[in-house]
Structures are given as C-alpha cells and as structure tokens.
Amino acid sequence: MIVDVHAHYFPKAYNEMLLRIGGRSLPEAARALTARPARDDDPSSIPLRLQQMDDAGVQMQVLSPAASPPYAEKEADAVAAARLVNDSYAELARAHPGRLAAFVSLPLPHIDASLREMERGLDQLGMLGVSMTCSCFDRSTAEAEFEPLYQEMNRRRTVLNYHPIQNGICSPMINDYRFTVSVGASLEDSAIVLHLIARRVPERYPDIKYVVPHLGGIIPMLLERLDNQAPRVHPNLPERPSLTARRFYYDTVGHGSQAALLCAWKAFGADQLVAGSDYPVLLAFETYRHTFHSIRESSLPAGDVDKILNHNAQRVLGID
Ligand SMILES: [Zn+2]
Description:
Elements: E1 2-8, H1 12-20, H2 28-31, H3 46-56, E2 58-64, H4 75-95, E3 100-102, E4 104-105, H5 111-124, E5 130-133, E6 135-136, E7 139-140, H6 147-156, E8 159-163, H7 172-175, H8 180-198, H9 201-204, E9 209-212, H10 219-233, H11 241-245, E10 249-251, H12 258-268, E11 273-274, H13 288-296, H14 302-317
Parallel strand pairs: 1-2, 2-3, 4-5, 5-8, 8-9, 9-10, 10-11
Antiparallel strand pairs: 6-7
Helix pairs in contact: 3-13, 4-5, 10-12
Bound molecules: zinc ion.
Zinc ion is lined by residues 6, 8, 66, 163, 278.
C-alpha cells in the first residue's frame, strides 16, 4: 500500500485567515499569479478523498498546506494561522487514523514561535514531520536565520518536507513570463537543494530526513555538471555535490513524465524516491489512481517500483 507524502488540504477557515492576515508570504509580482486560496476543503469532502485513496491503493496521505503556509509578519498572526491549520489536520488524523496524517506547519519567520509549534505538532498532535517551504519572505529556508529549526529537527531526527511557495525564485525571467507555477515551482525545489549543499546543511544536520518535491526539479539532470563546476566556486564542500544530493529524498510528483521519473531514478537511486501525488492538483489532469499507476507502468525494475510505491515513504516516516 502507498503512503502519499505530498497531499494537500485547505481548510476553509484557514484560507479565510490567510486572506485576513494579508497573504504577504509572496513577493508582489508572484501574488497575482498564484491566486489564493487554491480551494476550500471541509470534512464533507473526506469520503470522496478516501474513496479515491482506496481506488489508487493509497493507505495514507500526509497532509501539508502547499504554497499557503502560515507565514505572516506579525508573530501573533502567524501563530494563530499555524495553530489553526495544524489543529485542523490533527482533527482529520484523529477522525481517520492510519488514513490521514500531517506534517507540522511553522509560523515563520518567527523562529522561537516555530520551535514551540514544532514541539506541539510533533509531541502533542502526533505529526509525522515538519513542513517548510523552500523560501520564506524571499529568503531561502536554508539560510542561517533558520538554523535553530534545523538544529532541533536534527536532534529529533525528524522528516523535513519542503514545498515551493510559488515565487518563481523571485525572478522576472520566470514571473514576467507567467511560468511561476508550471516551471518556477521545480526551480524552487532545485534551488533549495543547491542552497542546502552550498551551506553544508546536511553535514551539520545529518539526522534530518530531507524530502524535496517533484523529483528534485532539474537537479537529477545536473549532478555531473555540479560535480565538475561547483567545487571551483565552493572549494570547502565536504564531498561532491552529487553525493550530498543523494542524501535527500525526492517525491515522485512528475505529472506523468516517464523521462523525469527515469532520470531521477538513475540519478538518485530507487531508495531515495518516495511516493507523492500533489493531491488534489493533478486531479485536473489525471485520476489519482493514474498518478501512481504511471510509476507501475514505467520501465523501472519491478523491485524498485515496489520500493518506491510501497516501502520507501514508510521507512522515511518511520511507520513501517
Ligand atoms: Zn504540492
């Protein structure tokens, strides 16, 4: 059975709160391109979701709020939003044990408040790891100011699940051409991998299980080039960039691209790929069942498909 590490749920009250507190987690240029809220979810939609999960062979979804994290300039706003989304997810998980679970969302950029919410989410609400976007207020979340969070996650050996925030890596080359969502998201994924490598984060915090979405964006195509050309400008890396990149996990959200799946499998190895769907985003283009079926239909060895679909996420989350 599949554990889907990349699934979303947007509580209506949470969406309303984000609008109220300003939705200021995005640069001005990107806001219009990623109109929020994405959609309103409420518990009445859960039976259909469970039915789709049954049909797709999905045992459990691990929920996160995608590009709508509870970030706000005022700490009290961010904390209220984080508590609301985390409590909503915890309630769903309690109502559907073993079927729905969640990652803790943090009230960034407020570090002490985030540490408190992380503790509440992991210890009291029983969440399976931490959700963080690739950037927060246009600062990479691999930056030094976020380091106390990494320190605590490392101590707890927790899962850290990244997600793009849809800022088109703050680039007019992407945003002015309206590729913020279709391509920019994968560039954010790629950028966080590069930032983690450049700042030697996994060397200092080796016990975090880093999960990068969307097959790592363009990273799997660039490992050799990184090994050749990055050390010249990053002379103090502890190892080749490709080795560090292979320490991370990558979810399989690839919009059905067999080329992207094969590339990531070849680059990172089957053990580093975890099942993900981006539910409900891809339902506009394919059934939930098809999202995972396309991995079964790939030319990957059957044993590797079995690992990717049925075992790796469980191992990473510590629920096997
Ligand atoms: Zn997503």
